[in-house]
Amino acid sequence: MNRTNILDLSDGQHLEQSFQAADKQLRVNRQGGKYILLRLSDRTGVIAGMLWNADERIFDSFERGDYVLCRGRTQVHNGNLQVIVTHIQRQDPSDVDISEFERFDADKSEELQTRLSEIMGQMKNVHLRRLGEAYLSDDDFMAKLTVGAAAVSNHHAYPGGLLQHSLDLMELVSLVGPRYPQLDVELLMFGAFLHDLGKVEELSSGGEVSYTDRGQMVGHIVIGVQILGDKIASLESTGEAFPGELRLQLEHLIVSHHGQIEFGSPKLPVTLEAVALHHLDNLDAKLASYTSVIEADVAADGNWTNYNPSIGRKLWKKRD
User: Fold this and answer.
1) pLDDT tens across 114-159, in order?
2) What is the Cβ-side half-sphere exposure of residue 314, based on CA atoms within 13 angstroms?
3) How far apart are CA 128 and CA 135, in angstroms?
């Protein structure tokens, strides 16, 4: 069965094809009728789906992460393309081409890991270099990092997105950091590596991206500090002392990187490296997020996206 990638769907298109059910919610409308709100995915992206006049039998007929055959049509709602589903049926994985849904790029991941090892190995600060080795030599941690997402939505919300975001931020530091001699570039670089690593435990890495129980109860900032403590303890168990002030600086980079208390940071940035990390992290995340908005937009106007309420504006589309 030929299928159209989510990225290539257009308004008013009738379809009968496979998706992966990234999420599902059974809801009740104002009239008391039940419907299912869906997040349907493939390797090119995610699209919302609506199945009206639903019931528990339909809702329970498939699980999150299952492959489903959907019949329906596309339509634009509030500036976003969605699928009005008229029929949904669970499919056996053997009946679909898994490559059409796998978003993890193993070759790209290997390239990123190689580059990460190069950057860590070039650090002159022996304590940071050995701490980096402690992370990179942890096979279980690296397995989670390479397939982890950086978010459930917004930016780098796909398998491998966490490693991509972390390395992109480290590359930004290598470009920007040397322009400011008052910065400890290696400290800032390591903070870029550390800042989101708690997401390896905060977010699930199999099937749809969602929050784990630990992620809901603790969050990636605290988890990241805990992982850092474990890695430093592993170094010190071999008789190698780790400087207390350096540990404090690294912990601060993690806990302050959101920049504002209302954005989830337990502490405001109070070191120059922490201030720089917050703004560079925000830059990389915003550009990735806004690029996704532009790529997913279905506005007829070729110059502008539809108004996006989450960012409070339209975005200019780059012309070919």
Assistant:
1) 999 999 999 999 999 999 999 999 999 999 999 888 777 666 767 8
2) 14
3) 11
Dihedral of alpha carbons 6, 10, 12, 15, sign: negative
What residue has token string 């996206």? 305
d(CA 81, CA 265): 34
For each of the domains in the chain, give its residue range(s) and CATH number, in order of start.
6-100 (2.40.50.140), 106-293 (no CATH)
Q: What gap in Å lies between CA 313 and CA 290, rounded to an integer?
A: 11
pTM over 0.90, yes/no: no
Pair of tokens at residue 15: 């379809």
3-state secondary structure the chain: CCCCCHHHCCCCCEEEEEEEEEEEEEEECCCCCEEEEEEEEECCEEEEEEECCCCHHHHCCCCCCCEEEEEEEEEEECCEEEEEEEEEEEECHHHCCHHHCCCCCHHHHHHHHHHHHHHHHCCCCHHHHHHHHHHHCCHHHHHHHHHCCCCCCCCCCCCCHHHHHHHHHHHHHHHHHHHCCCCCHHHHHHHHHHCCCCHHHHECCCCCCCECHHHHHCCHHHHHHHHHHHHHHHHHCCCCCCCHHHHHHHHHHHHHCCCCHHHCCCCCCCCHHHHHHHHHHHHHHHHHHHHHHHHHCCCCCCCECCCECCCCECCECCCC
The pLDDT tens digits of the residues spanning 187-239 come to 999 999 999 999 999 988 655 677 889 999 999 999 999 999 999 999 999 98
Give, rounded to a whole angstrom, the gap between the first and last alpha carbons of the chain. 32
